[in-house]
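Format notes (please read before filing issues)

Several people have asked whether sequences and C-alpha cells are stored in separate files. They are not. Every record keeps both together, in the order shown below: the sequence lines, then the C-alpha cell lines. Line labels are part of the format and must not be stripped during preprocessing.
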Amino acid sequence: MLIYYTMIEDYFKTCTSCQQYWRMLESFMQDNNLSFNGYQANFSIPGKGLFLFTHTNNNCNSTIAVKVKDFYPLYHEEIEEKEFAPGATDGCPNYCLDTTNLSDCGNKKCSGSVIRRLMQIVKEEIHRERDHSVT
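Then the structure lines:
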C-alpha cells in the first residue's frame, strides 16, 4: 500500500505548544496575542541569536523563540555577521547579557548594536501593525 503525503507549505513560525502558525512575518507582527519580551544573544553569529515572544492565545503562555535573522528584512541596511562581546568596546552598557532588556545601547562601535537597533524596529513595527489592524 502506498501512502502519499501532502507537502506542507513552509510557515514563518509555528507555536510548538498550541500549534498556531503564522504564514509570514507580517502576520506574526500583527498578532495581538504575542508580546516581544526578550533577546538571547549569540555572540559568535548575531543572526542566530533569538528574539523571544510570549504567546497568550487561548491561555497558551508559551515562549516562542525566533531567530534574529528572520527579522533582517525589517532592517533596511546591510547587517554584517561579526562576532561581538559585551564590554569589549568603550561605552558598552552590557545590555546583551540581560535577556529582558530590549533597549538600544547606542554603542555604534559594537557590531552587536545593530541587533539592538533591529529590536527597536521590531517593537515599533509590532505597535504600528497592530494599530493598523484595529482600524
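For reference, the curators noted about this record: Residues 14-134 form one domain. The longest helix spans residues 113-134.
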